[in-house]
Structures are given as C-alpha cells and as structure tokens.
Design brief:
17% strand, 11 strands, 5-stranded parallel beta sheet, alpha/beta, 6-stranded mixed beta sheet, binds guanosine-5'-monophosphate, binds manganese (II) ion
Length: 322
C-alpha cells in the first residue's frame, strides 16, 4: 500500500507543521492544507503550524490566525512535518523544533542533494508540495477549506497551470479540488494576479531599470533598499517582478535582486529554456528548481554579485546549446 496520512499519523498525538522562510503560496497552502485536514479527519491530534509572518493575500485560508512563529519553542512533538522546504537551513527558527521532534517527515518538490528527514516524500518533478500532499490524503475526506489551501499552492507554484511541473495529474487534482466547491476564480485573481497600487509602481520601476545582456537572452534588475523605501514597499511586494522580466520576448534567463534590511541581497532566477538555475543559485548557497531558483548574496550588486551571476548564467546557457 502506498504512503498515506492514516499510516503517517498513526499513534501520533502532537504534530508540528512548518515550511520555508519567507513563506509563499505553496508553503502556506501546504501547511494550512495539512493543518485543516488533521483538524477535520483526526480531531484528537494536536497540530500546530510554525511559519514566519505570511503575506496578507493568504490570510483567507481557514485558521491562519493560529499560526505561530517558532522562535524559542522547546516543545517536543511526536511528528514534525516539513513542507515545501528542500534544505533544513531554509526552516529558519523551526529548525530547532525539527531537531527536537520524535519523528520527522518531509514532503517537498525542490531539487535537493540529500534527504534530511527520517521519512521523505520528495519528487522534484511534481508541480507543487500541495499536489504531493493531496496524494497522501483521502480525497473523500478533503473538505472545502482544505481544498482551497491546496488549490492556492498549486496555482502559485505552477504560475496558474503554465510551468513545466504542471501535468495531467496536476489538472486532475485541481479538478477534484474545484469539485469541493471552492471559489477557484477568486483564488486565482486575489492570490496571483491582483496587485496593490504600490506593487504596480515598484513593478514599473523594476521593468524601467532592467538591463538586457547577451543579445537580449539575459535580463537583470536590481533594487536598492532606498528604492524600496521610496515606493513604500516591503520585500513581499516585489513578488511577480522576476516573472514579468522572464516573460520578456527573447529572454532565456531573468535575474532579479533586491536589497534586504541587513544590506544583503535576495536573488531570484527564472528561466524560459532548459537550463539548471540551481547550479547558478549555488554560487551563493541557494537552491530551488531548475527553472526557478533563489539565494541570498553579500557584496556590491553592480560590480560583484551581478557580474559573477552573469558568468554562471552564461555557462549554463552554453551547456544547454551544446
Ligand atoms: P524565489 O525566487 O521565488 O525566492 O525562489 C524560487 C525557488 O527557489 C523557490 O522554490 C524557493 O523555495 C527556492 N529558493 C529561494 N531562495 C532559496 C535559498 O536561499 N535556498 C534554497 N535552497 N532555495 C531557495
Ligand atoms: Mn513549492
């Protein structure tokens, strides 16, 4: 019999659920999807989600008000479920809760050099962690609340069913979730497409200041903390910028950097051709997927970080044309 939550949760009384730092739609959707599933199917189990503060747009999901931050938590859980996180360092403050837990399970779709939990349900080709999580659930017991969480994650990580990871299975699962009566059009509109006025303005700034390299095959934008402040935006408001850069006609690889509060730079890479961007992100100890990867870098963006990344991107593009 294949793995499922009846087996995974058998004999467990307390379960901690956590995902990666700077939680995105798949991370929040999978954590809340599992939390709400446990609440309705296994009401005797005490579950707790640990995440960094989540973006406003995901707060429509049921019970997001119960999420806690993991800083200083010493409780020993029967099971720790690590979701959408391919590297234990990406757990942030939840790593201590992971280390203390009696048993650990990782459900994920990132490219990773090593499995770090005791049980691992990890498939890098899957569209999203939410899709994998659904496979471990009993479809008949998935409520409308759970379906809304999982659908949001799938929508976010597939760019509304467009990226390579999207398979016929993804669409079949999305169909089952839609049949639960979720407001699917509204979820797509509110969590993926709708932008605030400020977000549109920082997007405009990013597109205007973008630079093309190598006959337009590479596009790069970086934004300083001063610029973010000038537009009164925070890091999560820059969501979507790298994707807009990538969708420029003729562009194979897009690179977007923005300065963090501590002077480091958060980097995002996206590709529209078959290259391995994980190799590029590794330059700064990052990771992710072949066509979508991220990292945090230290140094001068114009004279140090961007030139180094351009070299690495070119190397990957050369590999592709060989
Ligand atoms: P984003 O550019 O949206 O931050 O991230 C793209 C992909 O790379 C996501 O799957 C994300 O989880 C992963 N990612 C982003 N930053 C890092 C990082 O610093 N380390 C690792 N291992 N993965 C990252
Ligand atoms: Mn994901």
């Amino acid at each position: 019999m294949s793995l499922n939550f009846d087996q995974i949760l058998s004999g467990k009384k307390t379960v901690a659920i956590a995902g990666h730092v700077r939680p995105d739609g798949d991370c929040v959707g999978s954590c809340m999807g599992l939390y709400n599933y446990i609440k309705s199917v296994y009401p005797d189990i005490e579950a707790q989600v640990y995440l960094e503060p989540i973006p406003e747009v995901y707060k429509f999901m049921a019970n997001t008000d119960t999420i806690k931050q993991a800083d200083g938590v010493t409780e020993v859980y029967d099971l720790f479920v690590c979701l959408d996180c391919g590297d234990s360092r990406r757990l942030g403050a939840s790593a201590a809760v992971f280390d203390n837990a009696r048993h650990t399970l990782c459900v994920d779709h990132h490219m990773s050099d090593h499995d770090f939990a005791e049980d691992n349900y990890v498939f890098p080709k899957a569209s999203s962690t939410c899709e994998l999580l659904f496979e471990l659930m009993d479809p008949d017991k998935v409520t409308k609340d759970v379906a809304a969480c999982l659908y949001t994650g799938i929508v976010d990580d597939t760019g509304v069913f467009q990226y390579d990871g999207t398979s016929s299975k993804t669409m079949r699962i999305a169909g089952i979730l839609i049949d639960k009566g979720i407001p699917f059009s509204k979820i797509i509109q509110k969590t993926f497409y709708e932008k605030t006025y400020k977000q549109n303005r920082i997007m405009a700034e990013a597109l205007l200041s973008s630079k093309l390299y190598d006959d337009g095959r590479i596009i790069v934008t970086w934004l300083s903390k001063d610029t973010l402040d000038r537009y009164d935006v925070i890091a999560s408001d820059t969501e979507g910028i790298v994707e807009a850069l990538r969708s420029t006609k003729g562009v194979s690889v897009a690179l977007f950097l923005h300065e963090n509060n501590d002077g480091t730079y958060k980097g995002s890479l996206r590709a529209s051709v078959d290259v391995n961007l994980v190799n590029v992100a590794k330059l700064y100890d990052g990771g992710g997927h072949t066509k979508a990867a991220g990292f945090t870098a230290t140094g001068d963006p114009e004279h140090d970080i961007i030139p180094r990344l351009l070299d690495a991107i070119r190397k990957e593009l050369d590999e592709q044309t060989k």
